[in-house]
Amino acid sequence: MKDRKISLLLATVALVVILAVGVGAGAFHFLGNSSPLLASPATAAGLLTSSGSSQAQTATVDSPDLPTQQLLADLYDTVSPSVVNIQVTTQVQAQAQLPDGFPFGLPSTPQEDQSAQSEGTGFIYDNNGHIVTNNHVVADATDILVNFSDGHWAKAELVARDPQADLAVIKVTIPDGVTATPLVLDSQKDLNEGHYVVAIGSPFGLDETMTLGVVSALGRSFPAGDTGDGQPSYSLPDVIQTDAAINPGNSGGPLLNLRGEVVGVNFAINSPVRANSGVGFTIPVSVVEKIVPALINEGAYRYSFVGISGQTIDASLAADRKIADNTLGIYVAQVVSGGPADSAGVQADDIVVGIDEQNIVRFEDLLSYLFNNTVPGQDVTLHILRNGEAMDLNLTLAERPATATASQSTGGPVSVGQAVEIAKEAAVSAGFDGNVDSVRAGQGRVNGQSAWIIELASGDKTATVAVDPQTGEVLDVKVE
Questions:
Q1: Is 384 inside any structural domain?
Q2: Catalytic site residues?
Q3: Are residues 171 and 293 in the same domain?
């Protein structure tokens, strides 16, 4: 499967995808023991010491080159107490059983919801009880139970989740006697193809399972985000591909280097049979470092938005669109009406060859630059080719819109971050405590109308606020 086909399935972390293209043979699965698949941090003993920071384990020597038996054993002993099993309860609609003799089905009758169980993995992020996992592990959860490696357990609350990065943060009060410490995130950013990596998680419910592999590729882009009517697709940039065995239940668990540092969060596999095929995918630590603090502190992460869809130019596309051979860049298929690119003068059939001082060869290059180097409201320069002529267009990045419908509105869509702020103000006006402990944001409907549904928690009070995704109007407020 070519990388370009992966990027075509989505839009981008900062760009709305208007056109969806299949990914060919095989199937991408999020990892889990129920549908969707669930996937399951970290420093080797002797290589690490404790510090007073929120991430207590830190490496003291350079990364070893080879995973000796003793190093792996020490790494496992040190890391595994900080990796947790997450059991999730959700409500699903019961499926009616059709008895023999009813070939045309049964009369329409209300179906009661039933509880469903699934599980994944997470790791301790800081000394405040925050745990990092995947969004798809805890999405729609009614109950979340965290199991520690020493047999202790604790109920968890959802802090916030980000479907577009498939990351979520939950929080527990760590039981007395549990000695698990936060895992350290890789700060050296020296991961390369061929480097050894280790995954620890709960594949198929087998807690504390360790697997070893190598980095197969870097810089992949991958479909991410909730899907549904009117919702855009986005791509997650800089995804790590690994052949370390990752299976259902590994979702949300860490991928570690030989220093025992977290280099990413495992979240998906490419497999037609929901099992390891040597092609697993991991959210990179660069994404984790940006999004997790924002989820904890603000309840949402604000993505940059350009407002184009397109694809990497290859020989086939060049021939189809009569582009000169070996022209490298992104072919612009569509421009979102009223978006930053539209306002700057970008047109369909333009070719993006650079942004600021960064050359653009693949669609993934643009995704990575936008995520790692920009914020909404920032001015950037797109370098394009139009009918063979080089042009520079200046534009101001917006914040990613909530829905595909909103993204095409010139009235200005309401992003999830803006919706959270609107919800906080509305909740306080309705008698809710302004000191918010956790935020949960998602898309839903109120009286048949699409809406941001923002759930706020503070002490023993909760507030649920519905916000119009296009106008920002508060549609409903409930404080309990």
A1: yes
A2: 136, 166, 251
A3: yes
